[in-house]
Each structure stands twice: as C-alpha cells, then as structure tokens.
Amino acid sequence: MSRYLLDNQRPEAGARFEALAELFDPSTFRHLDELGLGEGWRCWEVGAGGPSVPRGLADRVGGRGRVLATDIDVSWTAPAAGGVLEVRRHDVTRDPPLAEAFDLVHARLVLVHLTDRAAALRTMIGALRPGGWLVLEDADPAMQPLICPDEHGPAPKLANRLREAFRTLLVERGADLAYGRTLPRLLRTAGLVDVRADAYFPITSPACAVLEAATVHHVRDQLLAAGLATADEIETHLANVAAGGLDLATSPMITAWGRTPAT
C-alpha cells in the first residue's frame, strides 16, 4: 500500500494543518528568512497541504515575486490563491517537470511519505535556477519515536503504544521513518553546495495536543481494522489528551538546505 495515510479529504486535515502551522511555521520561516527570502523571489512550495506556508512566502516575495503551491490535492490550499500566489494540482513524482526556474524550492513533510523519493528530489533540484536554494523538512520518527518522552504512568504508556501503532500504518504505506536524517547526505550527493541541517521538535505545546487528537481521529478506522488498537483504548487516549495532563511531543523535524552552484 502506498496511498498517503493522512489524505486531505478527511475533515481532520484542517485541524492537522493548523496545528502543524503553529508548531513548525516559525522554524520554517526562520530558515527561509536567514537564506535571504524576500522581494522578487520566485518560489515553489511542493506538497503544500495547508495554506500557511504559501501565504507566508507570498507575503515575503511582494508584488514582483511569484509563489507556486502544488499538491496532488489542493482543496485546502486553493482558497489562498490570488495575486502572486498560484495554486496548481501537480504530482511531483509523476507529472512532467515544471517549465520554469525558481530561487527557492521548499517541501515540508512530503518526501518521507513518497515511495519514489529519488524522482521527487531530482524534479525539485531540476527546478532550481543556478544559485537557487532547496529547503527540505522531514520528520524522523525513528530518531525519537515517543509521543510522550516522559513515560511516567498508564496514560503516557497508552499514548506511546498507539503512536507505535500509527507508525506501523505509516510503514505499511511506504513511509521511511528514518528518512529525515538522510537529507544532508542526499543534498550533497545531488551536487548541492553549502549544505547545512538542524533538527527541532516541540514538547508540551497546546498545538501538540490538537495535532495528536486530529491524527488519531484521522486514522481511527485504520487502527481498528488492523487490530492495532481497540475502540476503548482510542477513546481513553483521546480523553487523556483532552484532559491536558500529557506532555506530548512531535517527531524531530530535520531541516536541510543547500543551493545549486552558481554559474
């Protein structure tokens, strides 16, 4: 099975996108701003999902810039289109490469879920102008697999067991849970220069609870069908999350960046 487990068609997707934006947009734009993102830049946001990153890019590039946001399902991003921001349906692993060059190509939580990651990476690098930046952000759940790092009682233990079940579903659908750590090597191997990387993951943010609840609701039926959890376990966990007593974390988000050699 290779279908994306957390597809955009479910109503929980909106809550997930909002939580991801709250958790990770500050880190994303810290990196992009430090690279000089600004007026007149041409940017491609790959696998945009929600609208927050495309909107942030559009705010920074101004009237002379361009932002193209693509995804296989643009239902959550399309309402943000207008001005310098174009939203287009595009499959980075299967559709023809874009016939334009960009100053910045960015993808967050995209490659880890794809089966043909190498093809997607080649397409993104091929869309960069000389000197253009590629910024990739992907989780590495294998590096820190726990939703509750402080496993101090029954509720955190249940949370971590359900997180392991969720990870099982991801792997069955082709996700590479140790992919994030490979990004610096992959960028260097592809010929990019000035490659750097860092990692970030929040703990005990209110948005962590929102993200966890939305994710569990999203995959509830798959967990039950696979025999990975019972209905009582899921409802107990959701009640524990809602009660606010769990110190929830996310998987580490690895951000790696590099640029094509200038000619």
What assembly state would you assign to the polypeptide chains in this entry?
Answer: single chain
How much helix, percentage-wise, in residues? 25-40%
Poorly predicted runs of 5 or more residues: none
Principal-axes geometry comes out as: globular
Give the spatial strand order of the biggest sheet.
Answer: 3-2-1-4-5-7-6
Number of domains: 1
CATH topology: Rossmann fold
Mean of the pLDDT scores? 94
Strand content: 15-25%
Gross CATH architecture: 3-Layer(aba) Sandwich
CATH superfamily: Vaccinia Virus protein VP39
Using the coordinates above, name the CATH class.
Alpha Beta
- State Rg: 18 Å
Order of helices and strands: HEHEEEHEHHEHHE
Largest sheet: 7 strands, mixed
Number of helices: 7
Number of strands: 7
- How would you classify the helix and strand content by structural class? alpha/beta
| Terminal CA distance | 42 Å
Structural description of this entry:
- The protein is of the alpha/beta class.
- It has one domain (12-259): Rossmann fold (3-Layer(aba) Sandwich), CATH 3.40.50.150.
- Helix content is 39%, strand content 19%.
- It is built from 7 helices and 7 strands.
- The chain has helices spanning 12-34, 52-61, 117-126, 154-172, 183-189, 206-225, 231-243, and strands at residues 42-46, 66-71, 85-89, 102-108, 128-139, 193-200, 253-259.
- Strands 3-2-1-4-5-7-6 form a 7-stranded mixed beta sheet, sandwiched between helices.
- The model has no long low-confidence stretch (mean pLDDT 94).
